[in-house]
Design brief:
five-stranded parallel sheet, single chain, 2 domains, Rossmann fold
């Protein structure tokens, strides 16, 4: 039975939050995305960025993992998910249910909470369960918060799969990170390419971030470096907030900033939840005509804005299905004694969604078409 979770609990897993505001007002001067070839710059760096954007506008067709398991994994495994209290974690949980069912495994959900004390308590509950879990899934929390519990899991031979925590590669006790920091760096770089190309080399952006989370800091740094590399006429500033400012202080602060910096034409959200309440605040202040919003992680409100020509014009969705299935793919290989190279040799597929490709905003992109069947074939469970 899954615990009742808060509608918007902003915690240490906030790098993958999934609720945001939207608007149906279309910026007059900002491009809504689509084919990046409309930018006709002779700058080789900008042309290279255009090529990268064009490729990322194509929906991925493969989950990236192609090496089948050596054998069908044993059934009856007990997997515990330390589940954060935000929308995307609940969506991942739903996908884990389906993936585990196809493997004949059992899922248990433990509410992870939001504070270090709550997170440690959740780990203690998971480790004291009878029977003990065969594996633990966690997300968004650096190991320094739960090092003692992680050591205990390692001594008990319990593999731990993590994502979006920015733990260093090869962190002892972490079997695999399906969303390493490189994932957010790639997203930041791609957002910069998109900004430079769709605004014809004239992006005047501000990156809106929560620096408490290392993955988002890495994303910001990648954005800044790439924008400077591909666009000599582009500029960027940074606005920093705490997680508790989302939906409260963020909208008014952005309004104030834009009133003082009217040349800004792009808001880049480190994750889409940062835009909660922002479009409405911009409309009320009459600042919604010359600026657009882009971001990453994706959610229904973001998708609605993009689909209906609102202020948010593009996002890089997280793909909750591919995340859940890849986590269990790692465990299936681990239980089999197979190499994890098939999973480590690629990041999760990413895709820039625009108005032309977003489709039904209520049907969020979960991964490449047929992702569940692709993994089932790798797991040898189709027969």
């Amino acid at each position: 039975m899954k615990p009742r979770l808060a509608t918007l609990a902003i915690g240490l897993a906030a790098a993958t939050l999934a609720v945001s505001g939207c608007s149906k007002d279309t910026p007059d001067t900002a491009s809504s995305g689509g084919d990046s070839s409309s930018s006709e710059s002779a700058d080789p760096a900008l042309e290279e960025a255009s090529t990268a954007v064009d490729a990322a506008l194509e929906e991925p067709t493969s989950v990236g993992v192609t090496e089948p398991l050596s054998k069908k994994p044993d059934t009856g495994k007990n997997i515990t998910f330390l589940q954060c209290g935000v929308g995307i974690c609940q969506q991942i949980g739903d996908e884990l249910d389906d993936a585990a069912e196809s493997l004949g495994w059992n899922m248990t959900y433990v509410d992870q909470g939001t504070t270090p004390e709550q997170i440690v308590a959740a780990w203690d509950r998971a480790l004291s369960a009878n029977p003990k879990p065969d594996a633990i899934l966690t997300s968004g929390v650096p190991v320094v918060v739960y090092q003692r519990e992680l050591d205990e899991a390692a001594k008990a031979g319990i593999p731990v799969v993590d994502w979006a925590s920015a733990n260093p590669p090869g962190t002892p006790g972490i079997t695999f990170d399906i969303n390493p920091v490189e994932d957010n760096e790639e997203r930041g770089k791609l957002l910069a390419d998109y900004a430079a190309v769709t605004l014809d080399g004239q992006a005047k952006s501000v990156f809106v971030n929560v620096p408490d989370f290392p993955t988002l800091v890495a994303e910001q740094k990648a954005y800044e470096a790439e924008l400077a590399a591909v666009c000599s006429e582009c500029t960027n500033d940074v606005l920093e907030f705490s997680a508790t400012d989302i939906g409260t202080k963020v909208p008014s602060a952005i309004v104030s900033y834009l009133q003082q910096n009217p040349d800004v034409n792009l808001l880049v959200m480190s994750f889409d939840d940062m835009s909660l309440g922002v479009p409405e605040a911009l409309r009320a202040a009459g600042l919604d005509k010359n600026v657009q919003i882009i971001g990453q992680s994706g959610n229904e409100a973001t998708a609605e804005s993009i689909a209906n020509g609102g202020l948010q014009t593009a996002t890089i969705p997280q793909g909750v299905g591919q995340m859940a299935y890849k986590a269990l793919d790692v465990l299936a290989r681990e239980f089999n004694g197979d190499s994890l190279d098939a999973d480590s040799e690629n990041l999760l597929p990413i895709w820039i969604q625009t108005k032309e490709t977003i489709g039904d905003p209520k049907e969020l992109w979960k991964g490449p078409e047929g992702y569940a069947d692709q993994f089932a074939e790798l797991w040898k469970v189709n027969g």
